Amino acid sequence: MSSEAWGEAWETVIGLEVHCELRTATKLFCGCPNSFGDEPNVNVCPVCLGLPGSLPVLNKQAVELALRIGAALHSRAQSSIFHRKNYFYPDMPKDYQISQYDVPINAGGWLELPSGKQVGIVRAHIEEDTGKTTHIGGGGRIHEAGYSLVDYNRAGVPLVEIVSAPDISSAEEAREYVEELRGILVATGASDGKMEEGSLRVDCNVSVRPAGSEELGTRCEIKNMNSLRSLGRAIAYEAARQVEVRAGGGEVQQETRHWDESEGRTHSMRSKEEAFDYRYFPEPDLVTLSPSEDWVATVRANLGVLPAERRRRVAKAARVPASSEPVSTVVRLGLDGFVAAAVEAEADAGLALRRLANEVAGELGDDGGHHLGREEFARLVSMEERGELTSAQARSVLKIMVAEGGGPEEVAGRLGFEAMGAGALEAVVEDVVVANPREWGRYAAGDDKLAGFFIGKVKAATGGNADLRAASELLRRRRAGQ
Ligand code: ADP
Ligand code: MG
Ligand code: ZN
């Protein structure tokens, strides 16, 4: 069902649970390396394999990173404890996961979206990751697989799970939330932010309710979305499905659903487990985790600049609202240093912002790579500003600078864009006016339509190399007798 079909009658409510693998050197409770992509089962020891008699020792660096995440999300750091969450699955050799339950290290907080909207944070707690199973045959699905392989390299890798309040109200906003959170996690040094390597994994809770209602509807939890694109698609599908059920007089069952990327739909996986199913109890092998006030204060003091603050800086330089799209694009892509370089060179920061958000953003490699130098970029902006390059020329030059590097003067020369000084342009305008006295008479008498005629002549006379805005300005001034 399309969203138009249910119109304004229903609204979507979304809460996200994001698992973030921390960039520590070693695992959460043992000294095994925390590294992705190694040969299976090389980074293991008695602790992370859950062998009898082994004991966990908490990784201080993991706690430090968890505190940084909490500070960046305006959470309260508190004394916390670890619990055992009991369940059986072959990727978890201890048969329980050590996790924080009712007393997490970070409680409460909020995250500000680029739009300015604040999404509440319920908690950001520490837990350990599981190993990874791979089902062989049957298209990778467990039920049809011939056999399964398990890799314990990931077992015991430190995670922070960030749980949002149900404050998110569309698929688009959910994507914005994850992007913003990813930016924060990278800025704090807590994560590499690589969704495709599983460093960030998102579970999504979706419900619908009649528009304007205060009450929450029954939710479904969706798992297995491994890109922002699938997150958006899964939410859109699931919300429409629930509306259809409820509009038809049915009830949504609380359950966990699996997103099938190729079919573009969610499937029921299992009825939602309740906390009591896990028989949580305090982990007897670990003491209360009580970070000192000094430690927490030091973490806060050394947080560094977060994306929201970077957006404010870019917006101020370019004199546009911090919530505007070009600002968030430039910050998300890490291009704000180029705006700063333009400001430094006294080039037009607003023009720099537009060129970055449009041309540069569109030309970046898949990994965000480019060859653009900051000073070179600032010089290009100045050249466009002075009318030495038309905006079309500046855009062409910029694309090459992004792909190959180089300075704007040299690239413009290579493309045959003769820098057109103001004096040269004046001479061309004078020529076309003198050559077309009748048209000039009508334009001079106030017929503005003739401006286009003269601009066309200027364009033809210069082989497209003139700054046409500057040319119109010259025409206007000549008419005004200036
Ligand atoms: P659980 O421990 O079962 O996963 P939580 O109460 O911790 O449940 O909530 C998990 C997530 O579900 C949170 O992100 C929360 O915002 C979200 N959530 C809770 N109720 C709803 C609802 N009715 N609709 C959408 N999201 C919800
Ligand atoms: Mg949950
Ligand atoms: Zn280990």
Explain how this protein is built.
The chain is α+β, with helices and mostly antiparallel strands and 482 residues long. 39% of the residues lie in helices and 18% in strands. The protein has three domains: 3-301, no CATH class; 307-415, no CATH class; 422-481, Arc Repressor Mutant, subunit A. The protein is built from 16 helices and 15 strands. The strands form three sheets. Strands 1, 2, 5, 6, 7, 10, 11, 12, 13 and 14 form a ten-stranded mixed β-sheet that branches. A three-stranded antiparallel β-sheet has the order 4-3-15, with no helix packed on it. Adenosine-5'-diphosphate is lined by residues 13-17, 163-166, 205-207, 216-217, 219. Zinc ion binds at residues 27, 30, 32, 44-45, 47-48, 156.
Cα gyration radius (Å): 29 Å
Shape: elongated
Number of helices: 16
Q: Give the number of domains.
A: 3
Bound molecules: adenosine-5'-diphosphate, magnesium ion, zinc ion
Largest sheet: 10 strands, mixed
N-to-C CA distance? 63 Å
